[in-house]
Amino acid sequence: MAEQDGDDLLRYRSDDDVIAAMNAWRDLPPAHLKLALQFWNDRVTADHELRMVQEKNRNRLDVMGLIAAFVVSGASVGSAIYFGAMHDYWMAGIMLGPSVFAIMKLFVTRKAGKDDLKASGASLGVVSQPGGPQPLQ
Fold first, then answer.
1. pTM for the full predicted model
2. Phi/psi at 27 (5° precision)
3. Maximum C-alpha span of the chain
4. What's the pLDDT tens digit per position in 22-49?
């Protein structure tokens, strides 16, 4: 129980909670109080370093998502231009369709919804079905 109370003291976030924790510690002998404060400082420092590493990784992931979305959008526009020049307008339309935007949304926000999957499946289903549109020659 005492160990659980010690962990609870480290989880306080507001000033009132910190004051309450300090009041609970005021009856400790000076040597014990010094040891407790040193442990608390080490724990807070380690938590801060962990949060900084997590934030750095989150920022890297955001930048990589933006780069990937830029590459996908550039490739889709380039391939739409290519297919348009080859007079395959269905494929050019698919390259600029909802599936590409759903992929870019996935890279940028790292979230995909059911609506995105339905929209991308609908555009690909038109072309992949037997008897679908033939490329223009």
1. 0.54
2. -85, -5
3. 90
4. 777 777 788 887 887 788 788 888 888 9
